[in-house]
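Let's study a protein:

===
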Amino acid sequence: MKCSGSVAVVTGASGAIGSATVRALAARGVHLALAAPAGEMHVLEQLAAQAQATGVRALAVPTDVTSRADVDRLVTTAADAFGRIDVLANIAGIGSSPSLCDESDAAIERVIAINLLGCARTMHAVLPVMKTQGSGSIINIGSIAGEAGVMGIYSASKFGLRGLNDTVRREVRSANIGVTLVEPGFVRSPLNAAMGDGLPSPDIVARAIVRAIERPRRRVIVPAYYSIPVFIANAFPGIIDLVFGDARIQQRLNRDSRAMREAETTAT
């Protein structure tokens, strides 16, 4: 698929990876329907204005991906405004504590509702449009935590997304619709704030998304050096059990998350 002149729906457009993707797509001449929760509308409108300054059309649509009514409205609005939908970039997502026991029941449900069911809903809503067109490209943002179970309910949601991505890719292959899973490692974002500014820019993920639109793949791992630990996790799961089953590693893994949670509780 050629990016220039195509139409993309981007969920989670207000986040670090989302906004980087919006800028990358606008630079390639892609018209945009930007989605994020209503509380992020000011960010969406700024991104839409920046995109329009490059010469593409862009609109901001407040969307809660846990609401089917919102998702249907997003797809209908984009299809009515542009006449087609060529790309769906499912970037909306939230993190969790590495420890399942640290999460409330409501938090567990919300991670699954956004990270997994949100992607299922948007694909379910947009696929009839793409099938009628006879073409399309869907990009789902997974995580290397969806290859190695070390991040609590977040890992579970990304493992689920990996399975969903595979089954939908096979389902729509004959309809000329590509479905690619992009799995980032740690990049600079609010989700990884405790890791400092030395992480790769979210632009590296945005560039991978653009490449996946133009040439769909089953899976893309970014940065590429994470391919090695992913291979080890899949080929030798016992090593991951030994390392992350160590009490000291678990303590370190959860330290920052618990410190942030305590600071938030103190602040309120």
Observations:
- The chain has a mean pLDDT of 93.
- The beta strands are 7-11, 31-36, 58-62, 87-90, 136-141, 177-184, 219-222.
- The two ends are 49 Å apart (CA to CA).
